[in-house]
Amino acid sequence: AEAGGPGPPFWESCPVDALKALGNVSVPRGEFWMGNPRNLFLIKEIASAAHIYGKKYVDAESWTTWRRWRDGPFTRKQLVDRAFCEGLNRVTYHGFSHSPLEEGYPGRSYHAGVDMNPKVVWWSKARPFMDYLARCCYMLQQGLYVADVAYYYGDQAPNFWPLYHNVPGKPLIDGLGIGYEYDVVNSDVILNRMSVEDGKIVLPDGMSYRVLVLPERKDMSLEILKKLEKLVSEGATVIGPKPSVVPGLGDFEKKTEALRELAGKMWGDINGKTVKVSEYGKGRVIWGYTPQQWLEKISVGPDFICLDPDLAGSFNYIHRQTENADIYFISNKTLDPINTDCLFRTEDRIPQLWDPSDGTMKEQFVYTSVEGGISLPIVLPPGGSVFVVFRKGAPSSGLVSLAKEESGSDKDFPVEQVVAAGENSVIVQCWQNGKYLLTGRNGQTKQLEITSIPVPLEIKGDWRVQFDPEWGAPAEIIMPELISWTDHGNEGVKYYSGQGVYNKTINVPGDWLGPGKGICMDLGDVREVAEIYVNGKSAGVLWKPPFRVDITSLLKPGANDLGIEVMNLWINRLTGDMDLPDDEKFTRTNIRSDGGSWLANWADWDVQPAGLLGPVRLLPSVQVSVKTRNRSSL
């Protein structure tokens, strides 16, 4: 239930403690929208409620939208990744229309629902996207959320966080920088669920926080201050201004006098300038340091941070911890590829990279222990994501870095990587000729020079493209070069929605194949989903950048049959149908443009790029064995 309050316009005025309301339901649920001008993204508060009230699931009405049939899986991934990093771990589609066959395509739908049902164009290839969501949700349901700060949002009404839910990015609290996480807490949790262990604030379900931050307000209930006094006496750290008045009118003067007396003892001589810390019992009260400044003062660095300052704002992340593992989910917020070193606040553990898009789990052979944690390279495509899992174990390689000495056009190629390690060797895979430098934990270096990789092959020339003529396009066309269907001169192709199949014969030189050699197919730009077939066998469904897959095992020397099935979105055919009489329209839906309850003027929405845009390339690679002393040194 969306127990945190009703929808707009009531958020700003509804007299409710949202956290307490959410804490009283079995499954707290929020929502996030696509393309809404208010940036409706209500996840962080829901996640906080789940964390502080011991709820396993953080649910959300997901991808709510009025952008009908305009968004594919990659667009949805970018948004849900942000939600995952705010604490989401269970996805509920906002509508899953059950539209009878006789209602046609795209069929009946709720006016604000997400378009996800068997009548979506790309439904037959939706499984990999669904698997991605399932793997992410499963991983983010493990263990406990890791946060340094509990932020008390006061006792006023209404009480929401953030107040207007109008935040274009992951919400931060003032004074807490990138790389530190927090939960919002309320009076109920402070009074009834908080205690202190080993200097940390703890909750009955296992959550813990290093500091409790108070709101910038003068008012505080006497009951809350008394509980804070108990927590601080037992070792807690509280940051915030000294309260001077109680809310409400009941026994106002008596309670205010008691509040001021107790606050005076706790805050002592603090003035926020020359005196910023008051030691009290086993704990302390602080005013004049931001939460980040205090954490840095006690040598608590960021939990996760990019070591390149220019890229520090390019990531979202969330950290969960089990008894045996630290689980970080890292998301590239940008539409640029990223290859940079990042620091994780963990130690004495071995990193692995778990890819939620295909389920692979690979040891990260290149990393180093540094002050503040473990540093390792994070390589993500545009809008990409990965789980970095740290577990106990012995290092498998002695490498701390692997880098190409000349940069070149690296963004057009996969990044060099160590793919295996033995007792006295590591296997390095490269896609570009050049010199590579390996650095070991013992400080020694080795140079690796690669000269045998062939130049990538761009697949040019005519493509035979087949369409379903039932949806207005010709059964087959020849494309001399790859272009968007919307740029084609035939209106049946321009407004086509459905599957197009690209066919071609490609020739692979015999010396490209063999031991230690590999070939990836890179499709370039795809709108929206593609499945590659080589010699009649599927190489997999591609639904996000880079549209790239290893096809080595499917190739043979010489001629190879290539087929690429591409699916787009309904918006193009809906737009094309605008100018057609009703009896000539291809699409049918209750979301209409000529009056009625659900309005959509398809003519106001441009057609969207569709099909295989390319360039399509074959990218050869080699794997080279490099001798090492042992598993811990080069």
Structural features, described:
This protein is of the alpha+beta class and 634 residues long. Among the domains are: 18-142, no CATH class; 461-615, Galactose-binding domain-like (Jelly Rolls). The chain contains 10 helices and 40 strands. Helix 6 runs parallel beside helix 7. The model has no long low-confidence stretch (mean pLDDT 92).
Keywords:
634 residues; 10 helices; alpha+beta; single chain; six-stranded mixed sheet; flat; 15% helix; Jelly Rolls; six-stranded antiparallel sheet
Task: Tell me the layout of helices and strands.
Blueprint: H1 18-23, E1 29-33, E2 41-42, H2 44-52, E3 59-64, H3 73-86, E4 90-93, H4 127-140, E5 144-145, E6 149-152, E7 182-185, H5 187-192, E8 195-197, E9 200-202, E10 208-209, E11 211-213, H6 222-233, E12 237-239, H7 252-267, E13 277-280, E14 283-286, H8 291-297, E15 304-306, E16 315-321, E17 325-332, E18 338-344, E19 350-354, E20 361-363, E21 368-370, E22 373-380, E23 385-391, E24 399-404, E25 417-421, E26 425-430, E27 434-440, E28 445-450, E29 457-458, E30 463-466, E31 476-479, H9 491-494, E32 499-508, E33 517-522, E34 525-527, E35 529-534, E36 537-542, E37 548-550, E38 558-567, H10 571-577, E39 611-614, E40 617-627
Parallel strand pairs: 1-3, 3-4, 6-7, 6-11, 11-12, 12-14
Antiparallel strand pairs: 1-2, 5-16, 8-9, 9-10, 13-14, 15-18, 16-17, 17-23, 18-22, 19-20, 19-23, 21-22, 24-27, 25-26, 26-40, 27-28, 29-40, 30-31, 30-32, 32-38, 33-37, 33-40, 34-39, 35-36, 35-38
Helix pairs in contact: 6-7
